[in-house]
Amino acid sequence: MKILAVDIGAGTQDIMVYDDEEGFENAYKLVLPSPTRFFAEEVRRAEQDLVIFGETIGGGPFSRAVLEHLKKYKVYATERAARTLRDDLAVVRGYGVEIISEDEVADKVVSLTEKEGKKGKAKPLRISEFNPELLPLLASFGVDTSFDAVAVAVQDHGVAPPGVSDRENRFRIIAEKVGSGAGREAGGGEGRGEGRGEGRGEGREAGREAGGGGGAEAEIESFAYLDAVPDNLSRMKSVFQSVKSWHKGPVLLMDTGPAAVLGSLEDERVKGVVKEKKSLICVNVGNAHTIAMSLSGSGNGSGSENGSGSGSGSRITGIFEHHTRLLARQKLSYYLKKLSDGSLTFEEVFADGGHGALTIGTGKGKTKPEIISLTGPRREKMRGLGFFSAPAGDMMMTGAVGLVKAVLKRL
């Protein structure tokens, strides 16, 4: 099976071309700037009005660049593109962005040019997570691009209900996947941050306390969507529709954090712990977000030498997610200790500016993890808390490896 895996983070997009006859070690790999960074630079270079169209992409740098651009120029955007800034289009209009239809894009560029009397006064900017130029680039090096499956990882906070912040809604989605529900009922929240992926809302926590509850332990692969994406995940949905426009085979979408945790299980040292059915914690320190999962080994996912095992072999017993910029080594150490003994709560992490936490069961009977695995582009700041894992020999491919493992499990 030939798989194209693209892990799109806040800083980079990490690409792997995998063939199950060759395994991970012989996979082709690329690390490129993330779409949000690339398009943010396009906005900063534009000294003119902008007409933005295309897909819903990750916000972060792009959203901040657009808001800065609005201080001097006009910005027009289609609905799909505008949702990059916020799902609530009323808020986007409040920023000063004029929402236009897809049919108005070409006319808007022409009319603005004529109005100003200058050629190219309004710059059209098409945004997308997946760059279609990737396929001919790979083909130019002799890579067969007739993939059996395509897998993409992005982070999606989801379309939050009124009064619920991005951070609250984000962790509700995580908690539902793990199997314990999402915490307390929605409260009267305030804003949801500057852009998609920022998660800076200051609303009250949504849902009851995530911790000490029941619920079955989920496998990491439960975060993957195969050939269907819920409507409330607007960013994932946009990527899915884009890929399906050119790839007719299976398409898998997965959240970036769980994809990285799943990929870290391919490290040989982690494999050994899973095979022995021991507990462990896997941490991914990303450019924007840090996720940690406590796992219990089921012993069923050791896999084969080429990475085509039947699954992760581990079940989630706890999880928390935070913003990397708010975490120092000492603070993360504190959270990992509480995660391992089952005492970490949603409230504690959310009040600290993070997304939340959830543990399955109470702290009683929890055991110290056999190992703590650290991966992610910002893991250096957490040196000493665990060992640096390198699945398939390359830390930057952790998420892509996780995507491949999810495809192999689901197909």
Describe it.
This protein folds into two domains: 36-127, Rossmann fold, CATH 3.40.50; 161-220 and 258-410, no CATH class. Helix 1 packs parallel to helix 2 and helix 9 packs across helix 13 (398-410). It has helices spanning 35-45, 61-69, 79-82, 89-95, 104-116, 134-140, 166-178, 234-244, 256-264, 268-275, 329-341, 346-351, 398-410, and strands at 2-8, 12-19, 28-33, 49-54, 75-78, 98-100, 122-127, 149-153, 224-226, 251-254, 279-285, 289-297, 314-323, 356-359, 371-375, 387-388. It has 411 residues and is α/β, with parallel strands linked by helices.
Summed up, what is this model?
Helices cover 30% and strands 22% of the residues. It is an alpha/beta fold and 411 residues long.
